[in-house]
């Protein structure tokens, strides 16, 4: 019977290889989180501080005109309504009708309160713009 404990000279013992892959993975995760948080903070800052458009602010002012001073209200309706007058043919006609109704309230020294018909045209114009 042959001896099975023959020494093997051509096979080297196992060598320990340093493995840095967990460190690489942790570094990649940290960098990705930092980039993501940067985008989130920049996005929040942008959305928090962005300006309203001129049309939105004009519509808000137009829809909240105080009717207690009819002369000032007529001038404000004419000025702010002009922003939306040339959107399409329908808004142009509605603004023209409203502008004609407001003329007596603008060019007289003392004016009466704005009548219900003119206020109706004003509300109709607001609905046309908002639609």
Shape: rod-shaped
| Amount of beta strand | under 5%
Tell me the number of strands: 0
Averaged pLDDT: 86
Largest sheet: none
Helix content: 55-70%
Number of helices: 5
Structural class: mainly alpha
Distance between the termini: 102 Å
Low-confidence stretches: none
Give a structural overview.
This protein has 131 residues and is mainly alpha-helical. It has a domain at 54-130. The chain has 5 helices and no strands. The longest helix is centred in the first third of the chain and has 29 residues, at 21-49.
Q: Short description, anyone?
A:
This protein has five helices and no strands. The chain is mainly α.
Question: What's the structural blueprint in terms of helices and strands?
Answer:
Blueprint lengths: L20 H29 L4 H10 L6 H12 L7 H18 L9 H15 L1
Keywords:
mainly alpha; 5 helices; 131 residues
